[in-house]
């Protein structure tokens, strides 16, 4: 009886796969994800990255045991701050929340220094992996924490932040979001947003245009002196969603030397019908458990997962799968070239699709790339080489003293 390759991967049978081209390519690559929202779990009571968790038990998708199983060498751990009130008080709250999240990332690395190490330069990744540790880069998703005072960008740089995205779901004082229901406010970047770009270039920080509007992306490409990254995005040609990028802009991103990291977020990959009864049931569930998604106790999270499972069973929604993901990836490679495409599951931040549920499934992407005719060197570029090149370009162009 032939055992399916996916089952072997799931059992972490790396030695048994050592002779296969896919396994060898995955093992040889620097496997990095450019957008882990995992730091949102660090303050959860009883949650430790060294324990093996599961999507079914607590909704989490990244921890040390599963990184080992999936052959994942590390990634960018995000300081995510939800967009709050655009007032002095709101900006101060966002600043403080981001500083606390940065401290939590540093605490995790310090506590588990035998298994994790902080990196601030592309050249540091390989020695960390050679030492048997996982690489922790730090990024910022939504830059409201610095919008009131751009000198704070240097503070976060000192704390290790090497990638910053200006905007999230809603417009802010830096520019327009791709998904704000109110529409455009700045027609791209604000004046402060343009200063944000210049300061990122000065510091040597990679600019991340995921979540930004098309006009913001255009202006960031034009203004930035270094390549940009889309740390977790998809392709409009495959699924027309505001969060995704069209082929013309993808070519412009590549021409600048930038990279798109294909994400695994179902809502941006397949159509989601509007089901009012489902929406009402979800609202009732959140009200019943008495907490937001980012601040649940273990008991609340368990109740949420059980409640959502029942809602999904009663009002199922279409869910993207690995085939959909590869359509985005292969199209991006065809349009932009192999030097301009990478991977992010958007794990612990809403990502996860059938066949890519957590980091243990990442070898399946390598299998698909090898099956599509890509070489071991191509796989290495997609899994981390391209992102590290962009990181190095930003650092090399740094002018801050």
From TrEMBL:
<keyword id="KW-0732">Signal</keyword>
<feature type="signal peptide">
    <location>
        <begin position="1"/>
        <end position="18"/>
    </location>
</feature>
<dbReference type="InterPro" id="IPR008257">
    <property type="entry name" value="Pept_M19"/>
</dbReference>
<dbReference type="Pfam" id="PF01244">
    <property type="entry name" value="Peptidase_M19"/>
</dbReference>
<protein>
    <submittedName>
        <fullName>Dipeptidase</fullName>
    </submittedName>
</protein>
<dbReference type="InterPro" id="IPR032466">
    <property type="entry name" value="Metal_Hydrolase"/>
</dbReference>
């Amino acid at each position: 009886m032939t055992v399916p390759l996916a089952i072997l991967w799931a059992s972490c049978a790396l030695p048994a796969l050592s002779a296969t081209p896919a396994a060898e390519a995955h093992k040889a690559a620097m496997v990095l994800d450019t957008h882990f929202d995992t730091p949102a779990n660090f303050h959860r009571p009883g949650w430790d990255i060294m324990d093996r968790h599961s999507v079914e038990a607590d909704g989490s998708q990244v921890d040390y045991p599963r990184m080992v199983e999936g052959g994942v060498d590390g990634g960018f751990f995000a300081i995510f701050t939800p967009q709050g009130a655009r007032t002095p008080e709101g900006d101060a709250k966002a600043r403080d929340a981001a500083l606390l999240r940065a401290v939590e990332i540093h605490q995790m690395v310090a506590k588990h220094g035998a298994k994790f190490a902080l990196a601030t330069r592309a050249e540091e990744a390989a020695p960390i992996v050679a030492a048997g540790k996982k690489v922790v880069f730090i990024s910022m998703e939504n830059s409201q924490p610095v919008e009131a005072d751009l000198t704070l960008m240097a503070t976060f740089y000192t704390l290790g932040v090497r990638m910053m995205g200006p905007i999230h779901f809603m417009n802010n004082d830096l520019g327009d979001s791709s998904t704000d229901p109110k529409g455009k406010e700045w027609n791209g970047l604000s004046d402060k947003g343009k200063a944000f770009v210049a300061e990122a270039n000065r510091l040597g920080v990679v600019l991340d245009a995921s979540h930004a509007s098309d006009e913001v992306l255009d202006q960031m490409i034009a203004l930035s002196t270094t390549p940009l990254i889309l740390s977790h995005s998809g392709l409009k040609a495959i699924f027309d969603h505001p969060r995704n990028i069209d082929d013309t802009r993808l070519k412009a991103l590549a021409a600048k030397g930038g990279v798109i990291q294909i994400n695994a977020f179902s809502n941006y990959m397949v159509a989601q019908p509007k089901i009012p009864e489902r929406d009402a049931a979800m609202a009732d569930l959140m009200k019943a458990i008495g907490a937001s998604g980012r601040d649940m106790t273990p008991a609340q999270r368990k109740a949420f997962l059980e409640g959502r499972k029942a809602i999904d069973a009663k009002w199922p929604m279409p869910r993207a799968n690995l085939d959909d993901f590869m359509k985005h990836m292969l199209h991006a490679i065809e349009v932009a070239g192999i030097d301009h495409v990478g991977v992010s599951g958007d794990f612990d931040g809403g990502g996860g699709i059938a066949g890519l549920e957590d980091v243990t499934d990442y070898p399946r992407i390598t299998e698909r790339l090898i099956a599509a005719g890509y070489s071991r060197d191509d796989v290495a570029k997609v899994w981390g080489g391209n992102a590290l090149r962009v990181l190095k370009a930003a650092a090399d162009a740094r002018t801050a003293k």
